[in-house]
Amino acid sequence: MALVAGQMVAAALLLLSAAAAMRADDVPRMFLQETTSDYDDGVGGTAGDQGAKTMAGSPIVAGVMNNRLKALTSSFAKAIGDQLDYCIKDTDKEWNTAFNFSKDTTFLTNCMKQTNGDLQQRVCTAAEMKFYFNSLIDAGEKIGEKNYVKPNKNCNLSSWIDGCEPGWACSVGKEQKINLQDAKDIPFRALDCQACCPGFFCPHGLTCMIPCPLGAYCPLSSLNKTTGICDPYNYQPPPGNPNHTCGGADNWADVVTTDDIFCPPGFYCPSTTQKLPCSSGFYCRKGSISPTRCYKKSSCPPNSANQDITIFGALLVVTKYQRSSSIFLGVHIHPQGIPGISLVASCLVLLIIYNFSGQILTNREKKQAKSREAAARYARETAQARERWKSARDVAKKAGMGLQSQLSRTFSRKKVVQTASKSGADGDGKKKNLTDMMRSLEDNPESDEGFNLEIGDKGTKKNMPKGKQMHSRSQIFKYAYGQIEKEKAMQQENHNLTFSGVISMAKDHDVSTRPVIEIAFKDLTLTLKGSKKKLLRSVTGKLRPGRVAAVMGPSGAGKTTFLSAIAGKATGCQTSGMVLINGKVEPIRAYKRIIGFVPQDDIVHGNLTVEENLWFNARCRLSADMSKADKVLVMERVIESLGLQAVRYSLVGTVEQRGISGGQRKRVNVGLEMVMEPSVLILDEPTSGLDSASSLLLLRALRREALEGVNISMVVHQPSYTLYRMFDDLILLAKGGMTVYHGPVKKVEEYFTGLGIVVPERVNPPDYYIDILEGIVKPSMSAGVNVKDLPLRWMLHNGYDVPRDMLQSNSGSESSSFRGSTDPACGGNGSSVAAEVWGNVRDIVGQKKDEYDYNKSTEDLSNRCTPGILRQYRYFLGRCGKQRLREARIQGVDYLILCLAGICLGTLAKVSDETFGALGYTYTVIAVSLLCKIGALRSFALDKIHYWRERASGMSSLAYFMSKDTIDHFNTIVKPIVYLSMFYFFNNPRSSIWENYVVLVALVYCVTGIGYTFAIFFQPGSAQLWSALLPVVLTLIATQQKNTFFADLCYTKWALEGFVIANAQNYSGVWLITRCGSLVQSGYDINDKALCIVVLIANGLVFRCVAFFCMVTFQKH
């Protein structure tokens, strides 16, 4: 089929080229005939013939003939557009490039001389070209007949003249007038048969001539006496006819069929009859009409078919070194030289950025640290001065009181008053100030008037800018650390946390007030929707603000489930009972912006510092109306209370990179929720993995939060006695999710003692109770209580309604309560496996639906306006940029692999003129798709668990996704540059580097979107497997199933087509037939280059939308 397509195209183009010859108007032809006939010297026409020869050799006549050949397009533009529009984009430009002989019409002049001005009588008519066209189509299916045409009027079995042989042509006669545009009748052409003129070709089986296109070399052939073949056209003269010599060219076809008339590589042909060798420093590809200058420092000896730039990668490195040296030494490098010097410069810039990216962040952090340390030092000195003044004030107060009592014993009150008035009249400023100060101290002992006078900073507070007016870093830090030092002093004064101390702290105007939330629940029961398994049963109680509640119990008691239900995060479950928020029936999801939930796992960004993690959460989750200074103050309070000052600039660390310790990481995990100033703070095992000192520090920080009215509840495993006594309330759960105790810690031992369960001496009470609930320790026989009866005893003790099955269990019957369900159809022996599987499926579906509803809930009762999407997008963008800068080495490895791939593919898959480099571009599509998808997987695969936490806290999913994609645009732009900097110069295609770059950018954008989808939807291992298999499979479909619906769905088809079209556009002239044949065989259209780019970008957008949908819909645990 490729051969048939090529020959169809060849026939069509031959038809058009013949039309170029027959496009002669009658006036020019008659002009030539009249001129030659009028020239007569009276000697029997001999002078006329001589005049004809003279006029035929005139350059003016050759120019007229050239104009006739170029006039083809205007006459056949519509036919060309209808038949060859898939391979010829601009008909005028392409045909002018192929048949514009105005630069050198020597071959036309010589041909006119050779034919005695009979050139027009030897050019094929439309009918002959139509016949030739049909013959090529019919012969294309027959092997061995591709160079023959059907028998016709001039060449058949009964009449086979010399003009029918390849390379020969005949004339219709000088006196015979023919219509060259006649497409019906083939003229009789059998006169004056001779060899085809140089610069023309004469097909086998026809007796007319066709001009060779530019880029061809069509000289007269010569007989090779050894082989008997006419070189270089590989045809034999007819045997038995010694007068029939070798003629001219015989065929113009695609380069696969025959390349006889193509200008050979290493030479260039400025005209179709001239062949010149390439000189040193130039290279000439096959079919060249002019030499191409080689790049400097590349190897181009004489007769080079291509430039040798396999050492260009090394030259890039050398050039980088030279340019960097010239910057420091003042050496000027000539602007010409290695191509893409801007590319080298950009690579140098990228190299500097990625080598020193960590240093840039480090220097920035050092500057911030200096400013912060200066502010902290100033705040400490100010606080110390304040304390010194207070001490001096107390001493002065005591001295003044002693002096007053002594004077009262010596003098009367009247004399004392007179003395005082006299001293006041004397105008002694110091005594007056001292007296006024003493009276002020007596009236207001807490006044700081004397302090302001002492340090010479009078009016500082009055003139100090407010939070929203602070813009400089030093102002913000001074404000924050000043407030912290003041709060430390207050805590020191109220270290015993008495009731009066709490009230005094609460009344201080600097302590922020938060919305108070009280959570009450009655008969709270959670049941899985599918399997009907009960996770919590009849839990009743209340969580009050300003108190710290500990949730304890054995494994499987439902502690985490209970806290998830309180936070509104219990998904996949059917909830019964009543939950009241501040005494009202309101959904807890409406308060998610002021509810902090600390998961059990330490979900912290390891490639950010401690401060960066906390600051990001503070900016995104605190009120948008809060000033930056106040947000910094909140963050500094948390860092101070959690004891993270020493590691604030340290990276948290990942599995590959060592960071802070495990205890510090746990405290950072808690701090992420504390910085958003929650009203409800729920923690899932925050002390697990911490030593006693770290646990004590954490719990003290939580108690400070409780002083501000925060409702805190936490799951705790085996707390020490010291920690246990710091809790206000205790919630003790038994297996099956039933309450054993819910009340103050101070009364828990009293309650269990009433049941006959007494804690032995030197035994931690919570450990003892959990051992009893676990069954490790049995209650004493004198207690008269069973472990299974403890939930019932608690319900009866508080007067709660007792479920019927629990009463039956108490009477001695076998209860199913501890098996988790009262429904005999759930978990019974009679239940089928199919029913169990169906129940599990319903659990999963219900869980996904609840997760989606929770994250998409729009009702907000928290009265906190967090930053909008655009501001969060800016915050996410800054965070993601820092993370990528710290991952510079990983990016460098990606770029190195791309460079190596470009070198290998560019070297192994050289450009083939027959396929326009399709093989190398196929490998490029596969390699770039694979490498860029693997790189895109890191954007989301490693951060999914962080996203789930941030999304549950109310952060914008769109801002998160867009920030990741925006940062990846850097790779979308740079990776094609990195790859082409090697592949293009090793492969050296005819298309420009810009044309390849545009297609490659669209390809990288497309596969990046696909990588996002894989990273979000699949697990990391499966995502990598799909990323490796998909480009290979789609490429096979696109190349093997051409022109099918499935091929059009493959992005690799559009990428490959874009590359091939970009390269094929640079093949013109003699390559037209090859171009059209290759494009029709591949099913490509030269006009679809823009469509290919649009389709690739559209695919990238569609897959990004799919990835975003999967991100907000599917949540895998």
TrEMBL record:
CDD domains listed in its UniProt record:
ABCG_EPDR
For this record, the Gene Ontology CC terms, alphabetical, are: membrane
Annotated Basic residues bias: 461-471
Q: Where in the cell is it found?
A: Membrane
Q: How does it sit in the membrane?
A: Multi-pass membrane protein
Q: Which UniProt keywords apply?
A: ATP-binding, Membrane, Nucleotide-binding, Signal, Transmembrane, Transmembrane helix, Transport
Signal peptide positions are 1-24
Q: Which GO terms describe its molecular function?
A: ABC-type transporter activity; ATP binding; ATP hydrolysis activity
Q: Where is this chain compositionally biased, Low complexity type?
A: 809-821
Q: Can the keyword Transmembrane helix be found in this entry's annotation?
A: yes
Q: Where is this region: Disordered?
A: 414-433, 441-471, 808-829
Q: Which residues form the ABC transporter domain?
A: 519-760
Q: Which family does it belong to?
A: Belongs to the ABC transporter superfamily. ABCG family. Eye pigment precursor importer (TC 3.A.1.204) subfamily.
Cross-referenced PANTHER family, in alphabetical order?
ABC TRANSPORTER G FAMILY MEMBER 28, TRANSPORTER FAMILY PROTEIN, PUTATIVE, EXPRESSED-RELATED
Q: What is this protein called?
A: ABC transporter domain-containing protein
